[in-house]
Amino acid sequence: MSTGVVDAVLPSAELHLHLEGTLEPSTIFELAERNRVRLPYADVDELAARYDFADLQSFLDLYYANMATLRTAQDFADMTDAYLARAAVAGVVHAEVFVDPQAHTARGVALEEVLDGVGSALAAAPSVYGITTGLIPCVLRDRSAADAMTMLDGVLRSGVPVLGLGLDSAEVGNPPSVFRDVFDRAGAEGLHRVAHAGEEGPPAYVWEALDLLGAERIDHGVRSLEDDELVARLVRQRTPLTVCPLSNVRLRVIDDLADHPLPEMIRRGLVVTVNSDDPAYFGGYLDDNMTALRAACDIDDAAAELLARNSVEASFLDGDRKRELL
Ligand code: ES4
Ligand code: ZN
């Protein structure tokens, strides 16, 4: 339980954040006006009323629909800058952020608009906000492996600095194994590899992400707890799990925040971190996630400090910068 004292903001790394999931309802309307895009909602309230999700897919439908408002490099830069400004307030000192290039190229936005816009805002972050950054484009797992390879190819050709490759979108029925060649290529190009697994999907998908994709971190991974052998492996290898408490509740992966398995994950020795996933859709940023978690679950000051330290350890920063932040 929280002590009632205002929770201290601890310097943390944010490792599971979809940039497109930071578009606030008001920003969606501003971008729609700027780009003359017609939205199927009359106003911000009507849009906000749709944020009652039954599962991952019902969220993804709205998340992809709202992306129609993003057209130019300036839009992508503004979205990224707004996230960084808010993350700085949340105590984020390092952010490794996701972007979904295929969701934009599929609707006719050039890859360069996406990467140049996001990349320019990320490059400015150390001087503007004191935040170091890395970019992790994600493969949309509900599209083909060939489509994913085309995306990776374009990203590598773009010259925009990229930290790694991720895997996201609708999980069940779209196992990691489909994307083995794409992740092999990413590894050969020196990219880090991460994957969403064990959010709605079974522990078998976490095994596949580790064994077939070479995933160094698992995004979500909460369903790993159903498999003792998998937990033992993750603990032994110190493979981090980027957990998103408010997301899990809003997407009904977990019934109630008070029942969130994060305290159990810590007790079992897993390297867990707290992250905000799609903060504009799920009720808040990194600080909001920590505050809500501490109000609902048994996270004392020592556990909160451990979570912050884990986030730095789990990052892809080099050893020197990690030691600086630890
Ligand atoms: C996502 Cl919460 C979540 N899960 C899988 N894919 C995603 N893309 C954006 N948010
Ligand atoms: Zn996610």
TrEMBL record:
<feature type="binding site">
    <location>
        <position position="278"/>
    </location>
    <ligand>
        <name>substrate</name>
    </ligand>
</feature>
<dbReference type="GO" id="GO:0006146">
    <property type="term" value="P:adenine catabolic process"/>
</dbReference>
<dbReference type="GO" id="GO:0005829">
    <property type="term" value="C:cytosol"/>
</dbReference>
<keyword id="KW-0479">Metal-binding</keyword>
<feature type="site" description="Important for catalytic activity">
    <location>
        <position position="220"/>
    </location>
</feature>
<keyword id="KW-0546">Nucleotide metabolism</keyword>
<dbReference type="InterPro" id="IPR028892">
    <property type="entry name" value="ADE"/>
</dbReference>
<dbReference type="GO" id="GO:0000034">
    <property type="term" value="F:adenine deaminase activity"/>
</dbReference>
<feature type="binding site">
    <location>
        <position position="16"/>
    </location>
    <ligand>
        <name>Zn(2+)</name>
    </ligand>
</feature>
<feature type="active site" description="Proton donor">
    <location>
        <position position="199"/>
    </location>
</feature>
<dbReference type="GO" id="GO:0009117">
    <property type="term" value="P:nucleotide metabolic process"/>
</dbReference>
<keyword id="KW-0862">Zinc</keyword>
<feature type="binding site">
    <location>
        <position position="196"/>
    </location>
    <ligand>
        <name>Zn(2+)</name>
    </ligand>
</feature>
<protein>
    <recommendedName>
        <fullName>Adenine deaminase</fullName>
        <ecNumber>3.5.4.2</ecNumber>
    </recommendedName>
</protein>
<dbReference type="GO" id="GO:0008270">
    <property type="term" value="F:zinc ion binding"/>
</dbReference>
<comment type="function">
    <text>Catalyzes the hydrolytic deamination of adenine to hypoxanthine. Plays an important role in the purine salvage pathway and in nitrogen catabolism.</text>
</comment>
<dbReference type="Pfam" id="PF00962">
    <property type="entry name" value="A_deaminase"/>
</dbReference>
<dbReference type="InterPro" id="IPR006330">
    <property type="entry name" value="Ado/ade_deaminase"/>
</dbReference>
<feature type="binding site">
    <location>
        <position position="277"/>
    </location>
    <ligand>
        <name>Zn(2+)</name>
    </ligand>
</feature>
<dbReference type="InterPro" id="IPR032466">
    <property type="entry name" value="Metal_Hydrolase"/>
</dbReference>
<dbReference type="InterPro" id="IPR001365">
    <property type="entry name" value="A_deaminase_dom"/>
</dbReference>
<feature type="domain" description="Adenosine deaminase">
    <location>
        <begin position="11"/>
        <end position="326"/>
    </location>
</feature>
<comment type="similarity">
    <text>Belongs to the metallo-dependent hydrolases superfamily. Adenosine and AMP deaminases family. Adenine deaminase type 2 subfamily.</text>
</comment>
<dbReference type="GO" id="GO:0043103">
    <property type="term" value="P:hypoxanthine salvage"/>
</dbReference>
<feature type="binding site">
    <location>
        <position position="18"/>
    </location>
    <ligand>
        <name>Zn(2+)</name>
    </ligand>
</feature>
<keyword id="KW-0378">Hydrolase</keyword>
